[in-house]
Amino acid sequence: MEEDYIFKSYSMQGLMAYTVGEYEEAVKCFDIALKINPRDANTWFYKGLTLGKLGRNEEAIKCFEETLKINPEYADAWYNKGVALGAIGRNEEAIKCYDEALRINPKDTEAWYNKGVALGELGRYEEAIRCFDEALKINPKLADAWNNKGAALYYLGKYEEAINCCDEVLRINPNYEKASQLKYICLKKLGKI
After folding, report:
1. First-last CA distance in the chain
2. For the segment 146-188, what is each residue's pLDDT rounded down to a tens digit?
3. Which of 21, 89, 149, 177 is deepest in the core (most CB within 10 A)?
4. pLDDT at residue 2, as a whole number
C-alpha cells in the first residue's frame, strides 16, 4: 500500500514537473516511479514525452515501446513514437506508427498531418496530399496542413493548386511567412511576377 502511494507521488511529481517545463526533474521522478511499478503505461508514456522535449528521441522511442508492450492500443503512444522517429529521420518507421495511431483513432488530425509530413520527406507527394486532405476534413483551419499540401503540390509542378493552398493558409493566418514565400515562388514559376 505504501509502495503504491510512493509510486503515485513520484508519478504525479513527474507530471507536475513536465507541465511547468522542468523536464530533467520530471525524468528523475518518472524513473523513481518506474522502479516501483515498471508496468504503468502512463508513466512510460509521459517519460517518453519528456525525453522528446529534451531532444532525446532514441530514449523517448524506447519509452513509447514500453508503453505499447503494456497497452498496444495506446494511440497517443503510437503517434508520439512516430513523432520521435520522424525527428531522427526514420520516416518509414514513423509512417507505420501513424498508421497504427490512425487504426485506433481515425479522426486524429495530428496523426494524419504528421503522416503527410513524413511522406513528403520521402518524396511521396501524392500520398502526402491525401493525408493532408484527411487532416483538413477533420480541421479545415489547420494552416500547417494547407501549407504542406501547397508545398507537395509545388513539388508536383501544380503551381496554381499550390497557390490556392497558400491563399487558404493566409486566410487563416495572414502572417504565415512560409505560405507567402511559397506563393511568391509559385507565381514566379508561372511567370506572373
Report:
1. 72
2. 999 999 999 999 999 999 999 999 999 999 999 999 999 999 9
3. 149
4. 87
CB atoms closer than 10 angstroms to residue 5: 10
Question: Residues 84, 56: contact at Cβ < 8 Å?
Answer: no
| List of E strands, 124-175 | none
Q: Does domain 117-193 have CATH number 1.25.40.10?
A: yes
Name the nearest CA neighbour of 114 among 162, 64, 68, 148. 148
Whether this prediction's pTM lies above 0.90 is answered by yes
- Identify residue 90 by its one-letter amino acid code: R
Whether the Cβ atoms of residue 136 and residue 113 lie closer than 8 Å to each other: no
Which DSSP state fits 173?
Answer: -
Q: How many CB atoms lie within 10 A of CB 172?
A: 16
Tell the burial category of 45 from Cβ atoms under 10 Å away from its Cβ (0-12, 13-18, 19+): buried
